[in-house]
Task: inverse folding
Protein backbone atom coordinates (compact mmCIF):
# COMPACT_ATOMS: atom_id res chain seq x y z
CA UNK A 1 0.00 0.00 0.00
CA UNK A 2 1.30 3.41 -0.86
CA UNK A 3 -0.53 6.63 -0.35
CA UNK A 4 1.77 9.59 -0.66
CA UNK A 5 5.46 10.32 -0.43
CA UNK A 6 7.05 10.37 2.99
CA UNK A 7 7.20 14.11 3.30
CA UNK A 8 6.21 16.55 5.95
CA UNK A 9 4.24 17.98 3.18
CA UNK A 10 2.17 21.07 3.54
CA UNK A 11 -0.71 21.27 1.20
CA UNK A 12 -2.07 24.08 3.23
CA UNK A 13 -5.68 23.37 3.29
CA UNK A 14 -8.17 24.11 3.45
CA UNK A 15 -10.73 21.85 2.40
CA UNK A 16 -10.50 18.47 0.84
CA UNK A 17 -7.69 15.98 0.62
CA UNK A 18 -6.91 14.25 -2.58
CA UNK A 19 -6.57 10.53 -2.19
CA UNK A 20 -2.85 10.09 -2.65
CA UNK A 21 -2.34 6.55 -3.70
CA UNK A 22 -0.80 4.43 -6.35
CA UNK A 23 2.17 2.29 -7.21
CA UNK A 24 4.81 1.22 -4.74
CA UNK A 25 6.56 4.38 -3.76
CA UNK A 26 7.63 6.64 -0.97
CA UNK A 27 6.05 6.27 2.42
CA UNK A 28 4.08 9.11 3.90
CA UNK A 29 4.33 11.10 7.01
CA UNK A 30 2.34 14.11 8.07
CA UNK A 31 0.81 15.76 5.07
CA UNK A 32 -1.64 18.52 4.54
CA UNK A 33 -4.68 18.29 2.43
CA UNK A 34 -5.60 20.80 -0.20
CA UNK A 35 -7.63 21.19 -3.26
CA UNK A 36 -5.22 23.59 -4.89
CA UNK A 37 -1.73 22.70 -5.89
CA UNK A 38 1.39 24.42 -4.73
CA UNK A 39 3.63 26.13 -7.23
CA UNK A 40 7.12 24.70 -7.17
CA UNK A 41 8.57 28.12 -7.76
CA UNK A 42 7.01 29.20 -4.48
CA UNK A 43 8.98 26.47 -2.74
CA UNK A 44 12.10 27.79 -4.43
CA UNK A 45 11.71 31.11 -2.63
CA UNK A 46 12.22 29.44 0.72
CA UNK A 47 15.53 30.42 2.29
CA UNK A 48 17.92 27.50 2.02
CA UNK A 49 21.38 27.56 3.57
CA UNK A 50 24.15 27.18 1.01
CA UNK A 51 26.58 25.37 3.27
CA UNK A 52 26.93 21.65 2.46
CA UNK A 53 24.15 19.52 3.88
CA UNK A 54 26.14 16.29 3.59
CA UNK A 55 29.35 15.72 5.48
CA UNK A 56 32.16 13.81 3.72
CA UNK A 57 31.81 10.10 4.37
CA UNK A 58 34.15 7.24 3.53
CA UNK A 59 31.88 4.22 3.23
CA UNK A 60 33.39 0.88 4.23
CA UNK A 61 33.61 -1.89 1.67
CA UNK A 62 30.64 -4.21 1.49
CA UNK A 63 32.82 -7.13 2.59
CA UNK A 64 33.95 -5.22 5.68
CA UNK A 65 30.40 -4.16 6.43
CA UNK A 66 29.05 -7.71 6.10
CA UNK A 67 31.81 -8.97 8.37
CA UNK A 68 31.02 -6.39 11.01
CA UNK A 69 27.22 -6.13 10.87
CA UNK A 70 24.65 -8.64 12.05
CA UNK A 71 21.89 -8.42 9.45
CA UNK A 72 18.24 -9.23 10.13
CA UNK A 73 15.84 -10.05 7.30
CA UNK A 74 12.92 -7.69 6.71
CA UNK A 75 9.71 -8.39 4.75
CA UNK A 76 9.54 -8.04 0.97
CA UNK A 77 5.87 -8.23 0.01
CA UNK A 78 3.33 -7.74 -2.75
CA UNK A 79 0.73 -5.09 -1.86
CA UNK A 80 -2.09 -6.66 -3.82
CA UNK A 81 -1.38 -10.11 -2.43
CA UNK A 82 -1.58 -8.67 1.07
CA UNK A 83 -4.97 -7.18 0.29
CA UNK A 84 -6.15 -10.35 -1.43
CA UNK A 85 -5.21 -12.38 1.65
CA UNK A 86 -7.04 -9.94 3.90
CA UNK A 87 -10.17 -9.95 1.75
CA UNK A 88 -10.21 -13.76 1.64
CA UNK A 89 -10.97 -13.65 5.37
CA UNK A 90 -13.67 -10.98 5.08
CA UNK A 91 -17.29 -11.89 4.49
CA UNK A 92 -19.02 -10.46 1.44
CA UNK A 93 -22.32 -9.28 2.88
CA UNK A 94 -24.28 -8.93 -0.38
CA UNK A 95 -23.80 -9.73 -4.06
CA UNK A 96 -22.44 -7.14 -6.48
CA UNK A 97 -25.87 -6.90 -8.08
CA UNK A 98 -27.50 -6.25 -4.71
CA UNK A 99 -24.83 -3.71 -3.74
CA UNK A 100 -25.40 -1.73 -6.93
CA UNK A 101 -29.09 -1.40 -6.03
CA UNK A 102 -28.41 -0.13 -2.50
CA UNK A 103 -28.61 3.48 -1.43
CA UNK A 104 -25.96 4.45 1.10
CA UNK A 105 -28.20 5.83 3.83
CA UNK A 106 -26.52 4.36 6.93
CA UNK A 107 -23.42 2.52 8.11
CA UNK A 108 -25.00 -0.87 7.50
CA UNK A 109 -25.61 -0.13 3.82
CA UNK A 110 -22.14 1.40 3.57
CA UNK A 111 -20.55 -1.82 4.85
CA UNK A 112 -22.57 -3.91 2.41
CA UNK A 113 -21.54 -1.73 -0.54
CA UNK A 114 -17.86 -1.88 0.41
CA UNK A 115 -17.95 -5.63 1.07
CA UNK A 116 -19.11 -6.29 -2.49
CA UNK A 117 -17.77 -3.42 -4.61
CA UNK A 118 -14.50 -2.96 -2.74
CA UNK A 119 -13.13 -6.39 -3.61
CA UNK A 120 -10.34 -7.34 -5.96
CA UNK A 121 -11.30 -9.40 -9.05
CA UNK A 122 -11.55 -13.17 -8.60
CA UNK A 123 -9.50 -13.71 -11.76
CA UNK A 124 -7.99 -11.84 -14.71
CA UNK A 125 -10.94 -12.71 -16.97
CA UNK A 126 -13.16 -10.39 -14.94
CA UNK A 127 -10.98 -7.34 -15.66
CA UNK A 128 -11.37 -4.92 -18.57
CA UNK A 129 -7.64 -4.48 -19.22
CA UNK A 130 -8.32 -1.80 -21.86
CA UNK A 131 -10.23 0.42 -19.45
CA UNK A 132 -9.49 4.04 -18.62
CA UNK A 133 -10.10 5.42 -15.14
CA UNK A 134 -11.23 9.03 -15.14
CA UNK A 135 -10.06 10.58 -11.89
CA UNK A 136 -11.17 13.92 -10.51
CA UNK A 137 -8.55 16.38 -9.27
CA UNK A 138 -9.18 19.92 -8.12
CA UNK A 139 -6.07 21.59 -9.52
CA UNK A 140 -3.48 21.30 -12.24
CA UNK A 141 -0.10 19.66 -12.03
CA UNK A 142 2.73 22.15 -11.50
CA UNK A 143 5.72 19.85 -12.00
CA UNK A 144 6.21 16.36 -13.39
CA UNK A 145 9.57 16.02 -11.62
CA UNK A 146 8.81 13.88 -8.56
CA UNK A 147 11.33 15.55 -6.24
CA UNK A 148 9.82 18.96 -7.06
CA UNK A 149 6.42 17.82 -5.89
CA UNK A 150 4.66 19.84 -3.23
CA UNK A 151 0.96 19.38 -3.88
CA UNK A 152 -1.58 16.60 -3.77
CA UNK A 153 -1.99 16.27 -7.52
CA UNK A 154 1.78 16.19 -8.06
CA UNK A 155 2.19 13.34 -5.62
CA UNK A 156 -0.75 11.57 -7.15
CA UNK A 157 0.90 11.69 -10.55
CA UNK A 158 4.31 10.69 -9.22
CA UNK A 159 2.76 7.72 -7.42
CA UNK A 160 1.75 6.47 -10.87
CA UNK A 161 4.80 7.45 -12.90
CA UNK A 162 7.45 6.90 -10.23
CA UNK A 163 8.78 3.87 -8.46
CA UNK A 164 9.81 3.23 -4.89
CA UNK A 165 11.42 0.62 -2.71
CA UNK A 166 9.12 0.63 0.31
CA UNK A 167 5.48 0.77 1.24
CA UNK A 168 3.29 -0.09 4.24
CA UNK A 169 0.06 -1.87 5.00
CA UNK A 170 -3.21 -0.58 6.49
CA UNK A 171 -1.68 -0.84 9.97
CA UNK A 172 1.33 1.27 8.91
CA UNK A 173 3.68 -1.73 9.01
CA UNK A 174 6.50 -1.09 6.53
CA UNK A 175 7.77 -3.56 3.97
CA UNK A 176 9.94 -3.55 0.86
CA UNK A 177 7.98 -3.85 -2.37
CA UNK A 178 8.50 -7.08 -4.30
CA UNK A 179 7.99 -5.28 -7.62
CA UNK A 180 11.28 -3.44 -7.14
CA UNK A 181 13.22 -5.17 -4.33
CA UNK A 182 14.83 -8.61 -4.03
CA UNK A 183 15.84 -8.36 -0.39
CA UNK A 184 15.90 -5.92 2.53
CA UNK A 185 17.99 -6.32 5.65
CA UNK A 186 18.39 -4.12 8.71
CA UNK A 187 21.37 -4.26 11.03
CA UNK A 188 20.66 -5.43 14.54
CA UNK A 189 22.01 -2.13 15.87
CA UNK A 190 19.56 -0.22 13.59
CA UNK A 191 22.34 1.84 11.97
CA UNK A 192 22.26 0.29 8.50
CA UNK A 193 19.74 -0.92 5.94
CA UNK A 194 20.83 -3.00 2.97
CA UNK A 195 18.59 -3.28 -0.10
CA UNK A 196 19.12 -5.34 -3.21
CA UNK A 197 17.16 -4.08 -6.22
CA UNK A 198 15.70 -6.22 -8.95
CA UNK A 199 17.73 -6.22 -12.15
CA UNK A 200 14.73 -5.98 -14.50
CA UNK A 201 13.78 -2.36 -13.80
CA UNK A 202 14.00 0.21 -16.59
CA UNK A 203 13.19 3.84 -17.13
CA UNK A 204 10.62 4.62 -19.81
CA UNK A 205 13.43 5.41 -22.29
CA UNK A 206 14.81 1.88 -21.86
CA UNK A 207 17.75 2.78 -19.60
CA UNK A 208 18.17 0.35 -16.67
CA UNK A 209 17.21 1.63 -13.23
CA UNK A 210 20.08 1.02 -10.83
CA UNK A 211 21.22 1.75 -7.30
CA UNK A 212 23.20 4.65 -8.73
CA UNK A 213 19.95 6.46 -9.60
CA UNK A 214 18.95 6.33 -5.95
CA UNK A 215 22.30 7.62 -4.71
CA UNK A 216 22.24 10.40 -7.30
CA UNK A 217 18.74 11.41 -6.23
CA UNK A 218 19.75 11.44 -2.57
CA UNK A 219 22.72 13.71 -3.28
CA UNK A 220 20.54 15.96 -5.45
CA UNK A 221 17.94 16.33 -2.71
CA UNK A 222 20.70 17.16 -0.24
CA UNK A 223 22.21 19.77 -2.58
CA UNK A 224 21.35 23.12 -0.93
CA UNK A 225 21.07 24.78 -4.34
CA UNK A 226 18.19 22.49 -5.34
CA UNK A 227 14.87 23.94 -4.05
CA UNK A 228 13.22 20.82 -2.64
CA UNK A 229 12.66 21.47 1.10
CA UNK A 230 9.54 19.28 1.20
CA UNK A 231 11.35 16.17 -0.07
CA UNK A 232 14.47 16.99 1.92
CA UNK A 233 12.55 16.73 5.20
CA UNK A 234 13.24 13.22 6.49
CA UNK A 235 15.79 12.44 3.80
CA UNK A 236 18.16 14.75 5.68
CA UNK A 237 18.11 12.30 8.60
CA UNK A 238 20.27 9.91 6.55
CA UNK A 239 24.05 10.12 6.92
CA UNK A 240 24.79 8.53 3.54
CA UNK A 241 23.69 6.07 0.87
CA UNK A 242 26.27 3.92 -0.89
CA UNK A 243 25.78 1.95 -4.11
CA UNK A 244 28.13 -1.06 -4.08
CA UNK A 245 27.04 -2.26 -7.50
CA UNK A 246 24.07 -1.71 -9.82
CA UNK A 247 21.66 -3.46 -7.47
CA UNK A 248 23.08 -3.22 -3.94
CA UNK A 249 22.47 -0.22 -1.69
CA UNK A 250 23.31 0.46 1.92
CA UNK A 251 21.61 3.28 3.83
CA UNK A 252 23.73 4.70 6.66
CA UNK A 253 21.75 6.27 9.51
CA UNK A 254 23.01 9.02 11.79
CA UNK A 255 21.83 7.14 14.88
CA UNK A 256 19.67 4.18 15.84
CA UNK A 257 16.05 5.36 15.90
CA UNK A 258 12.71 3.56 15.56
CA UNK A 259 11.79 6.16 12.92
CA UNK A 260 14.70 5.36 10.57
CA UNK A 261 12.58 3.13 8.36
CA UNK A 262 10.48 6.10 7.25
CA UNK A 263 13.56 7.97 5.99
CA UNK A 264 14.62 5.27 3.52
CA UNK A 265 12.30 6.26 0.73
CA UNK A 266 12.01 9.34 -1.41
CA UNK A 267 11.05 10.04 -5.02
CA UNK A 268 13.68 8.82 -7.50
CA UNK A 269 14.84 10.67 -10.64
CA UNK A 270 16.92 9.24 -13.51
CA UNK A 271 20.63 9.98 -13.09
CA UNK A 272 21.36 9.78 -16.81
CA UNK A 273 18.86 12.59 -17.47
CA UNK A 274 19.43 15.06 -14.65
CA UNK A 275 23.18 14.82 -14.06
CA UNK A 276 23.83 16.58 -17.38
CA UNK A 277 22.32 19.94 -16.36
CA UNK A 278 22.24 19.82 -12.56
CA UNK A 279 25.21 22.14 -12.03
CA UNK A 280 24.18 24.68 -14.66
CA UNK A 281 20.53 24.78 -13.55
CA UNK A 282 20.04 23.46 -9.99
CA UNK A 283 16.44 24.72 -10.02
CA UNK A 284 15.66 21.70 -12.24
CA UNK A 285 13.05 23.80 -14.01
CA UNK A 286 14.35 27.01 -15.58
CA UNK A 287 16.64 25.87 -18.39
CA UNK A 288 15.43 24.79 -21.82
CA UNK A 289 16.84 21.34 -21.07
CA UNK A 290 14.77 20.92 -17.92
CA UNK A 291 11.65 22.36 -19.58
CA UNK A 292 11.98 19.62 -22.20
CA UNK A 293 11.95 16.90 -19.55
CA UNK A 294 9.20 18.67 -17.64
CA UNK A 295 7.02 18.27 -20.74
CA UNK A 296 8.39 14.83 -21.71
CA UNK A 297 9.37 13.21 -18.40
CA UNK A 298 11.30 9.94 -18.28
CA UNK A 299 9.38 7.79 -15.78
CA UNK A 300 10.27 4.73 -13.75
CA UNK A 301 6.87 3.49 -12.64
CA UNK A 302 3.83 1.77 -14.17
CA UNK A 303 2.72 4.80 -16.21
CA UNK A 304 4.18 7.44 -18.51
CA UNK A 305 2.80 10.79 -19.59
CA UNK A 306 0.81 10.54 -22.82
CA UNK A 307 -0.93 13.91 -23.00
CA UNK A 308 -1.39 17.05 -20.97
CA UNK A 309 -3.71 19.97 -21.56
CA UNK A 310 -2.91 22.52 -18.89
CA UNK A 311 -5.88 23.38 -16.72
CA UNK A 312 -7.99 20.59 -18.24
CA UNK A 313 -6.53 17.10 -18.08
CA UNK A 314 -3.49 14.88 -17.62
CA UNK A 315 -3.47 11.50 -19.37
CA UNK A 316 -1.10 8.72 -18.34
CA UNK A 317 -0.59 5.50 -20.30
CA UNK A 318 0.30 2.10 -18.88
CA UNK A 319 3.94 1.33 -19.59
CA UNK A 320 4.40 -2.18 -20.98
CA UNK A 321 8.12 -2.17 -20.18
CA UNK A 322 7.17 -1.84 -16.50
CA UNK A 323 5.53 -5.23 -16.27
CA UNK A 324 6.84 -7.12 -19.35
CA UNK A 325 10.40 -8.32 -19.95
CA UNK A 326 11.36 -10.56 -22.88
CA UNK A 327 7.75 -11.50 -23.46
CA UNK A 328 7.11 -12.47 -19.85
CA UNK A 329 5.04 -10.68 -17.21
CA UNK A 330 7.53 -9.94 -14.44
CA UNK A 331 5.37 -7.57 -12.39
CA UNK A 332 1.68 -7.16 -11.77
CA UNK A 333 0.04 -5.45 -14.71
CA UNK A 334 -1.84 -2.30 -13.62
CA UNK A 335 -5.56 -2.74 -14.08
CA UNK A 336 -6.02 0.40 -16.22
CA UNK A 337 -4.54 1.03 -19.64
CA UNK A 338 -4.93 4.76 -19.10
CA UNK A 339 -5.43 7.10 -16.18
CA UNK A 340 -7.07 10.38 -17.03
CA UNK A 341 -6.91 13.08 -14.39
CA UNK A 342 -9.72 15.52 -15.11
CA UNK A 343 -9.12 18.95 -13.58
CA UNK A 344 -12.35 20.44 -12.22
CA UNK A 345 -12.10 23.04 -9.49
CA UNK A 346 -15.78 23.49 -8.65
CA UNK A 347 -17.25 20.54 -6.66
CA UNK A 348 -20.73 21.03 -8.13
CA UNK A 349 -19.36 20.91 -11.66
CA UNK A 350 -17.40 17.80 -10.76
CA UNK A 351 -20.55 16.12 -9.42
CA UNK A 352 -22.33 16.79 -12.70
CA UNK A 353 -19.40 15.17 -14.51
CA UNK A 354 -19.65 12.15 -12.19
CA UNK A 355 -23.36 11.74 -12.89
CA UNK A 356 -22.72 11.97 -16.63
CA UNK A 357 -20.00 9.33 -16.46
CA UNK A 358 -17.27 11.79 -17.46
CA UNK A 359 -15.34 10.99 -14.27
CA UNK A 360 -15.40 7.76 -12.29
CA UNK A 361 -14.92 9.03 -8.75
CA UNK A 362 -14.67 12.15 -6.62
CA UNK A 363 -14.46 13.19 -2.99
CA UNK A 364 -17.79 14.55 -1.74
CA UNK A 365 -18.06 17.39 0.73
CA UNK A 366 -20.81 17.12 3.39
CA UNK A 367 -23.32 19.18 1.45
CA UNK A 368 -22.92 17.10 -1.71
CA UNK A 369 -23.14 13.85 0.24
CA UNK A 370 -26.28 14.89 2.11
CA UNK A 371 -28.22 16.98 -0.39
CA UNK A 372 -27.20 16.11 -3.96
CA UNK A 373 -26.40 12.39 -3.97
CA UNK A 374 -29.47 10.83 -2.44
CA UNK A 375 -31.94 10.81 -5.35
CA UNK A 376 -32.57 8.44 -8.24
CA UNK A 377 -30.70 10.75 -10.61
CA UNK A 378 -27.45 10.06 -8.71
CA UNK A 379 -27.99 6.33 -8.16
CA UNK A 380 -28.84 5.76 -11.82
CA UNK A 381 -25.13 5.79 -12.71
CA UNK A 382 -23.35 6.14 -9.37
CA UNK A 383 -23.01 4.87 -5.85
CA UNK A 384 -21.12 6.20 -2.86
CA UNK A 385 -19.13 4.96 0.13
CA UNK A 386 -17.22 6.29 3.10
CA UNK A 387 -14.52 5.26 5.54
CA UNK A 388 -12.42 6.43 8.45
CA UNK A 389 -9.59 8.83 7.62
CA UNK A 390 -7.19 10.52 10.03
CA UNK A 391 -7.34 14.03 8.59
CA UNK A 392 -8.00 16.91 10.97
CA UNK A 393 -8.91 20.55 10.40
CA UNK A 394 -8.23 23.54 12.61
CA UNK A 395 -7.92 27.26 13.14
CA UNK A 396 -4.20 27.97 13.42
CA UNK A 397 -3.08 30.89 15.62
CA UNK A 398 0.22 32.69 15.05
CA UNK A 399 1.63 32.49 18.57
CA UNK A 400 4.10 35.32 17.99
CA UNK A 401 1.44 37.92 17.25
CA UNK A 402 0.21 40.26 19.97
CA UNK A 403 -3.21 38.64 19.77
CA UNK A 404 -2.33 34.96 20.25
CA UNK A 405 0.89 34.90 22.25
CA UNK A 406 -1.04 34.18 25.46
CA UNK A 407 -2.49 30.67 25.67
CA UNK A 408 -5.47 32.04 27.60
CA UNK A 409 -6.47 33.94 24.46
CA UNK A 410 -6.05 30.82 22.33
CA UNK A 411 -8.19 28.87 24.78
CA UNK A 412 -10.77 31.68 24.62
CA UNK A 413 -10.94 31.29 20.83
CA UNK A 414 -11.77 27.60 21.26
CA UNK A 415 -14.48 28.34 23.85
CA UNK A 416 -15.95 31.14 21.73
CA UNK A 417 -16.47 28.99 18.64
CA UNK A 418 -19.77 27.17 18.13
CA UNK A 419 -18.43 23.67 17.46
CA UNK A 420 -21.88 22.10 17.54
CA UNK A 421 -23.27 24.37 14.83
CA UNK A 422 -20.24 23.67 12.66
CA UNK A 423 -20.54 19.89 13.06
CA UNK A 424 -24.33 19.61 12.87
CA UNK A 425 -25.16 22.23 10.27
CA UNK A 426 -22.11 23.10 8.18
CA UNK A 427 -20.75 19.54 8.19
CA UNK A 428 -24.21 17.91 8.17
CA UNK A 429 -23.32 15.64 11.08
CA UNK A 430 -20.85 13.68 8.97
CA UNK A 431 -17.61 14.60 10.73
CA UNK A 432 -16.52 13.84 14.27
CA UNK A 433 -15.04 16.44 16.62
CA UNK A 434 -11.25 16.65 16.84
CA UNK A 435 -9.37 17.50 20.02
CA UNK A 436 -5.76 17.25 18.92
CA UNK A 437 -3.16 15.79 16.62
CA UNK A 438 -4.04 12.10 17.00
CA UNK A 439 -7.28 10.28 16.27
CA UNK A 440 -8.80 8.34 19.15
CA UNK A 441 -8.32 5.06 17.23
CA UNK A 442 -4.58 5.67 16.77
CA UNK A 443 -2.15 3.71 18.94
CA UNK A 444 -0.42 6.93 20.01
CA UNK A 445 -3.58 8.72 21.14
CA UNK A 446 -3.78 9.61 24.86
CA UNK A 447 -5.77 7.39 27.19
CA UNK A 448 -8.25 8.72 28.15
CA UNK A 449 -8.80 10.89 25.10
CA UNK A 450 -9.05 14.65 25.48
CA UNK A 451 -12.60 16.02 25.39
CA UNK A 452 -13.99 18.20 22.59
CA UNK A 453 -14.42 21.90 23.34
CA UNK A 454 -17.97 23.18 23.61
CA UNK A 455 -18.97 26.78 23.08
CA UNK A 456 -18.93 28.68 26.36
CA UNK A 457 -18.96 32.43 25.78
CA UNK A 458 -18.79 33.25 29.49
CA UNK A 459 -15.64 31.14 29.86
CA UNK A 460 -14.17 32.78 26.76
CA UNK A 461 -14.82 36.24 28.14
CA UNK A 462 -13.33 35.38 31.53
CA UNK A 463 -10.14 34.13 29.87
CA UNK A 464 -9.88 37.26 27.73
CA UNK A 465 -10.36 39.43 30.80
CA UNK A 466 -7.60 37.52 32.60
CA UNK A 467 -5.32 38.04 29.59
CA UNK A 468 -5.94 41.81 29.74
CA UNK A 469 -8.13 42.08 26.65
CA UNK A 470 -10.87 44.38 27.95
CA UNK A 471 -12.96 47.08 26.27
CA UNK A 472 -11.22 50.03 27.88
CA UNK A 473 -12.74 52.79 25.72
CA UNK A 474 -16.33 51.53 25.55
CA UNK A 475 -16.47 51.15 21.76
CA UNK A 476 -17.59 47.53 21.95
CA UNK A 477 -14.21 46.12 20.88
CA UNK A 478 -11.79 44.55 23.33
CA UNK A 479 -8.36 46.14 23.45
CA UNK A 480 -5.07 45.99 25.30
CA UNK A 481 -2.13 48.31 25.85
CA UNK A 482 1.24 47.40 24.34
CA UNK A 483 4.22 49.76 24.77
CA UNK A 484 1.91 52.64 25.63
CA UNK A 485 -0.37 52.08 22.64
CA UNK A 486 -3.94 50.72 22.80
CA UNK A 487 -4.40 47.89 20.28
CA UNK A 488 -7.95 46.79 19.42
CA UNK A 489 -8.54 43.04 19.10
CA UNK A 490 -9.02 43.01 15.35
CA UNK A 491 -7.40 40.25 13.30
CA UNK A 492 -7.62 38.50 9.95
CA UNK A 493 -8.00 34.79 9.28
CA UNK A 494 -6.91 33.56 5.87
CA UNK A 495 -8.53 30.62 4.16
CA UNK A 496 -8.90 29.03 0.76
CA UNK A 497 -11.83 30.25 -1.29
CA UNK A 498 -13.94 27.12 -0.74
CA UNK A 499 -17.56 27.05 0.45
CA UNK A 500 -17.07 24.95 3.59
CA UNK A 501 -13.91 26.68 4.78
CA UNK A 502 -15.47 30.10 4.18
CA UNK A 503 -18.60 29.08 6.08
CA UNK A 504 -16.60 27.83 9.05
CA UNK A 505 -14.49 30.99 9.20
CA UNK A 506 -17.60 33.14 8.88
CA UNK A 507 -19.13 31.27 11.82
CA UNK A 508 -15.99 32.09 13.84
CA UNK A 509 -16.36 35.75 12.89
CA UNK A 510 -19.99 35.78 14.06
CA UNK A 511 -19.11 34.06 17.34
CA UNK A 512 -16.29 36.50 18.11
CA UNK A 513 -18.55 39.47 17.35
CA UNK A 514 -20.54 38.41 20.42
CA UNK A 515 -17.57 38.87 22.76
CA UNK A 516 -16.08 42.07 21.35
CA UNK A 517 -13.51 40.73 18.86
CA UNK A 518 -13.40 41.69 15.20
CA UNK A 519 -12.39 38.86 12.88
CA UNK A 520 -12.02 39.54 9.16
CA UNK A 521 -12.25 36.52 6.85
CA UNK A 522 -9.81 36.75 3.94
CA UNK A 523 -10.14 34.26 1.06
CA UNK A 524 -6.59 33.75 -0.21
CA UNK A 525 -5.20 32.18 -3.38
CA UNK A 526 -3.40 28.99 -2.49
CA UNK A 527 0.17 29.78 -3.54
CA UNK A 528 -0.06 33.18 -1.83
CA UNK A 529 -1.34 31.49 1.29
CA UNK A 530 1.53 29.00 1.17
CA UNK A 531 4.07 31.77 0.92
CA UNK A 532 2.53 33.74 3.78
CA UNK A 533 2.33 30.66 5.99
CA UNK A 534 5.98 29.75 5.42
CA UNK A 535 7.05 33.28 6.26
CA UNK A 536 4.69 33.54 9.27
CA UNK A 537 2.94 36.47 7.61
CA UNK A 538 -0.51 35.79 9.01
CA UNK A 539 -2.44 36.18 12.22
CA UNK A 540 -4.75 33.18 11.87
CA UNK A 541 -5.52 30.60 9.23
CA UNK A 542 -7.86 27.69 8.53
CA UNK A 543 -6.17 24.46 7.49
CA UNK A 544 -5.93 20.70 7.82
CA UNK A 545 -3.33 17.97 8.25
CA UNK A 546 -3.24 14.27 7.57
CA UNK A 547 -1.73 11.96 10.17
CA UNK A 548 1.61 10.43 9.24
CA UNK A 549 2.76 6.83 9.27
CA UNK A 550 4.64 7.50 12.51
CA UNK A 551 3.81 10.08 15.21
CA UNK A 552 7.35 11.44 14.99
CA UNK A 553 6.48 13.00 11.64
CA UNK A 554 4.54 15.76 13.39
CA UNK A 555 7.76 17.05 14.97
CA UNK A 556 8.04 19.18 11.84
CA UNK A 557 4.88 21.02 12.91
CA UNK A 558 5.43 21.49 16.62
CA UNK A 559 9.11 21.59 17.51
CA UNK A 560 10.46 25.11 18.13
CA UNK A 561 11.55 26.69 14.83
CA UNK A 562 10.65 23.55 12.84
CA UNK A 563 10.29 24.19 9.08
CA UNK A 564 6.51 23.67 9.06
CA UNK A 565 5.78 25.27 12.42
CA UNK A 566 4.00 28.15 10.74
CA UNK A 567 2.26 29.32 13.91
CA UNK A 568 5.64 29.70 15.68
CA UNK A 569 4.50 27.62 18.63
CA UNK A 570 7.20 26.83 21.17
CA UNK A 571 7.14 24.66 24.28
CA UNK A 572 10.44 23.18 25.59
CA UNK A 573 8.60 20.23 27.11
CA UNK A 574 7.08 19.33 23.73
CA UNK A 575 10.53 19.63 22.10
CA UNK A 576 12.00 17.31 24.75
CA UNK A 577 9.19 14.75 24.41
CA UNK A 578 9.59 14.58 20.63
CA UNK A 579 13.29 13.83 21.06
CA UNK A 580 12.46 11.14 23.61
CA UNK A 581 9.79 9.64 21.36
CA UNK A 582 12.08 9.21 18.37
CA UNK A 583 14.60 7.36 20.56
CA UNK A 584 12.21 5.03 22.37
CA UNK A 585 11.81 1.58 20.78
CA UNK A 586 9.11 0.22 23.09
CA UNK A 587 5.80 0.96 21.37
CA UNK A 588 3.79 1.25 24.59
CA UNK A 589 6.28 3.72 26.03
CA UNK A 590 6.31 5.66 22.76
CA UNK A 591 2.51 5.83 22.86
CA UNK A 592 2.62 7.44 26.31
CA UNK A 593 5.18 10.00 25.12
CA UNK A 594 3.12 11.05 22.11
CA UNK A 595 -0.09 10.95 24.12
CA UNK A 596 1.52 13.44 26.50
CA UNK A 597 2.44 15.68 23.56
CA UNK A 598 -1.19 15.55 22.44
CA UNK A 599 -2.34 16.57 25.94
CA UNK A 600 0.12 19.48 26.19
CA UNK A 601 -0.95 20.80 22.80
CA UNK A 602 -4.57 20.46 23.90
CA UNK A 603 -3.79 22.62 26.94
CA UNK A 604 -1.81 25.20 24.95
CA UNK A 605 -4.30 25.36 22.02
CA UNK A 606 -1.90 26.62 19.32
CA UNK A 607 -4.70 25.34 17.11
CA UNK A 608 -8.39 25.27 17.75
CA UNK A 609 -8.99 21.71 16.60
CA UNK A 610 -12.28 21.40 14.76
CA UNK A 611 -13.07 18.02 13.19
CA UNK A 612 -11.75 14.83 11.62
CA UNK A 613 -12.84 14.64 8.02
CA UNK A 614 -13.62 11.07 7.03
CA UNK A 615 -13.46 9.92 3.42
CA UNK A 616 -16.74 10.39 1.55
CA UNK A 617 -16.65 9.42 -2.13
CA UNK A 618 -18.93 9.06 -5.08
CA UNK A 619 -18.15 6.30 -7.59
CA UNK A 620 -19.33 5.30 -11.02
CA UNK A 621 -21.09 1.94 -10.77
CA UNK A 622 -18.55 0.42 -13.16
CA UNK A 623 -15.70 0.99 -10.72
CA UNK A 624 -14.59 -1.71 -8.27
CA UNK A 625 -11.94 -2.20 -5.62
CA UNK A 626 -12.23 0.91 -3.45
CA UNK A 627 -10.72 0.21 -0.05
CA UNK A 628 -10.51 2.75 2.78
CA UNK A 629 -7.86 3.15 5.46
CA UNK A 630 -6.89 5.92 7.92
CA UNK A 631 -4.75 7.37 5.13
CA UNK A 632 -7.64 7.49 2.66
CA UNK A 633 -8.97 5.24 -0.11
CA UNK A 634 -7.30 3.10 -2.76
CA UNK A 635 -3.63 2.57 -1.92
CA UNK A 636 -2.91 -1.04 -2.66
CA UNK A 637 -0.65 -2.18 -5.46
CA UNK A 638 0.54 -0.62 -8.73
CA UNK A 639 -1.25 2.01 -10.73
CA UNK A 640 -4.43 2.83 -8.88
CA UNK A 641 -3.82 -0.29 -6.90
CA UNK A 642 -6.97 -2.10 -5.98
CA UNK A 643 -9.24 -0.12 -8.32
CA UNK A 644 -10.42 -1.90 -11.47
CA UNK A 645 -13.27 -2.09 -13.97
CA UNK A 646 -15.08 -5.29 -14.93
CA UNK A 647 -15.55 -6.48 -18.48
CA UNK A 648 -18.84 -5.18 -19.90
CA UNK A 649 -21.53 -7.81 -20.15
Result:
Amino acid sequence: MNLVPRLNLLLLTILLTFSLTGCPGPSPSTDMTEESSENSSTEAKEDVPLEPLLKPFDAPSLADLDAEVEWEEQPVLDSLELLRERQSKEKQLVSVKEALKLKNTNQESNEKILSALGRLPENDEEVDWNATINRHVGADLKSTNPIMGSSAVEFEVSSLTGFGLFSFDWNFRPFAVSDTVVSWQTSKDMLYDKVVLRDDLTWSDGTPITAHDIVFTFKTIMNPRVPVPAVRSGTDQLKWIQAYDDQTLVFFHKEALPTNVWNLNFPIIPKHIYEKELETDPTLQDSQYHVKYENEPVTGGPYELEKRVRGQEIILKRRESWYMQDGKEVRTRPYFERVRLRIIQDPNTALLALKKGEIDEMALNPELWKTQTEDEDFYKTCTKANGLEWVYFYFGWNCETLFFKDKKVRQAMSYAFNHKEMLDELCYGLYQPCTGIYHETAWMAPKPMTKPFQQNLNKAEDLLDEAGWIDHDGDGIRDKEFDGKIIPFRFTIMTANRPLSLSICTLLKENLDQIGIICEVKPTEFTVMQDKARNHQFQAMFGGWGTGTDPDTSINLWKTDAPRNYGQYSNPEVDKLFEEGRREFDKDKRAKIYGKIHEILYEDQPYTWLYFRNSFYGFNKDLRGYVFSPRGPYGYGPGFGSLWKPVSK
